[in-house]
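ugh ok fine here u go
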Amino acid sequence: MMISAILLAAGMSKRMMGENKLTKKFKGIALINHSVNNILHSDIDEIIVVLGFQKEVVEKIVNKNEKIKFVFNKDFESGMASSIKTGLNHLSKNTEAFFICLGDMPNVNSDIYNKLIKFKNNNEIIIPTYNGQQGNPILFSKSIKNILTNVKGDMGAKKIIDMKKQKIFELETRDQSIIQNYNTKDSFVL
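structure:
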């Protein structure tokens, strides 16, 4: 079964006061590379990195690997939905399930991805939770792909998740990394 990951890396880091959070160092490594490396160490077969804001800078920083495909979202300023669609349009034809991952969540390790993959079976949407709070990354069956292409604005996949509640499997984890993102300068202070 082929599993893909759509890594959203197109945002403008608006809360970072002019700095691109994905290129900022976190534990000595550019933030985006933590996310990429964690996916590469999992059982995921391909990574589609959706670029937008400062695309050349971000692409240059990302560690190269044959599993990685870079795509450009020309409408990145319109919000996350356009990046999700761009990623969906570049999924391999053999993809059976795909993650939507955020480039600013460096602590989501390969174990989280692998646990979610294990629960794929008949579940259409698998969401990790921490103390009952839904987090990321989210694993979608390819049956959800067409519905996701209708998402608009900066909503991400939340609208679809709300519509498909009966198709969701929540996997409780003891790992709060699934709810930690790095959006502000204060996030980077260790």
